Amino acid sequence: MAIERTFSILKPDALQSGVIGKVLAKFEEAGLKPVAMKMVQLSRAEAEEFYGIHRERGFFKALIDFMTSGPVILQVLEGENAIAKNREVMGATNPANAAEGTIRRSFAKSIDANTVHGSDSAENAKIEIAYFFAGTEIVKYNWAK
Ligand code: CMP
Q1: How far apart are CA 140 and CA 15, in angstroms?
Q2: Residue 137 Cα to ligand 1 middle (Å)
Q3: Which of 20, 76, 105, 122 could make a disulfide contact with 98, Cβ separation 3.0–4.6 Å?
Q4: What angle do CA 58, 99, 95 make, to 5 degrees?
Q5: Which among 83, 102, 111 is the best mutation to test ligand 1's pocket, defined by most ligand atoms within 8 Å of the CB?
Q6: Does ligand 1 lie within 6 Å of residue 63's CB atom?
């Protein structure tokens, strides 16, 4: 399997609830290593552009309100099959449907406050990483055991 990169956000509820470490541990246990990471407060304009694909959806305003309600952690995760692996570790979008042991089942409170975002395809991973990170902000990881 190929080493891939995917884009990940720890949403405001993860920071508010004090579970940053526990969420990162789930990624690390799954073999997903952060190769870029920063904590930011998203502006409305940034959040609206990032989630532009959902602009016409009924939940768009609530999504933007929530994503700008407090700081978030943006990261690039690297690992074997990282895009699918990340989605597996996150669990279903709605925590009520998320499998036992997943991040959303363990920590999320609602479909909006669902703790993490992760890219849904290789194409979107590329776009989302480039939206928030310059190439120079992504480290080269030493994969030697
Ligand atoms: P995320 O993976 O960040 O992508 C879009 C977000 O919109 C999603 O997680 C949810 O937090 C939020 N959302 C709210 N309602 C819905 C819905 N009905 N379907 C999909 N996403 C939703």
Answers
A1: 27
A2: 27
A3: 105
A4: 30
A5: 111
A6: yes
Cα 123 to ligand 1 centroid, rounded to whole Å: 19
Name the residue among 100, 83, 59, 74 with its Cα closest to residue 14. Answer: 74
Q: Ligand 1 centroid vs 114 CA: distance in angstroms?
A: 8
pLDDT in tens, 74-103: 999 999 999 999 999 999 999 999 999 999
Helix (H) or strand (E) holding 14: helix 12-16
pLDDT of 16 reads: 98
93 lines ligand 1 (CB under 6 A): yes
Mutate which of 88, 93, 117 to test ligand 1's pocket (most atoms within 8 Å of Cβ)?
A: 93
Instruction: List pLDDT tens digits, range 3-57.
Output: 999 999 999 999 999 999 999 999 999 999 999 999 999 999 999 999 999 999 9
DSSP class of residue 108 equals -
pLDDT, tens digit, 9 for 90 and up, residues 101-118: 999 999 999 999 999 999
